[in-house]
Design brief:
globular
């Protein structure tokens, strides 16, 4: 698989199963869907842009796996685009939704799940994504 997400070159940290963020990108690419997309972006979601509207739930899910912090790039409309920082490893599995636009990943504020998950729909999307990912990872372990 060819990777284009921000930080893919250095996303080599491993979890307890030996999986890297690249591996999780591959797994999530078959899971991200309109149902896990942020409702305000759902009409624009397509198979060709699977990462659209998936940033916060994906970043918090990867934080559960690797630890570290979830940071947010200010988008100028009051929203933040979430990504992960684990030690010196910075990666954004959902950066491709912005096409060729370059985000500034420096000096971004930390994002907190309590604030993000205050919205019940976001917590539900996170749980849906988490369960689907766990199912995929467990199937890998059974093979």
């Amino acid at each position: 698989m060819t990777y284009h997400f921000y930080g893919w070159e250095t996303a080599t940290i491993k979890d307890q199963r030996g999986l890297t963020p690249r591996d999780y990108y591959t797994l999530l690419s078959s899971i991200w869907c309109a149902d896990t997309c942020a409702p305000r972006m759902r009409d624009a979601w397509t198979e060709e842009n699977r990462t659209l509207g998936q940033c916060s739930i994906t970043a918090f899910l990867l934080q559960d796996i690797y630890g570290g912090r979830v940071l947010g790039v200010p988008l100028g409309d009051g929203n933040y685009h979430c990504f992960n920082e684990v030690g010196d490893c910075v990666f954004d599995l959902t950066s491709e939704q912005f096409g060729d636009a370059k985000l500034n990943y420096e000096h971004c504020p930390e994002q907190h799940r309590e604030l993000h998950f205050a919205k019940a729909e976001k917590k539900e999307r996170y749980e849906r994504l988490r369960q689907a990912l766990l199912s995929h990872v467990n199937q890998m372990g059974a093979n």
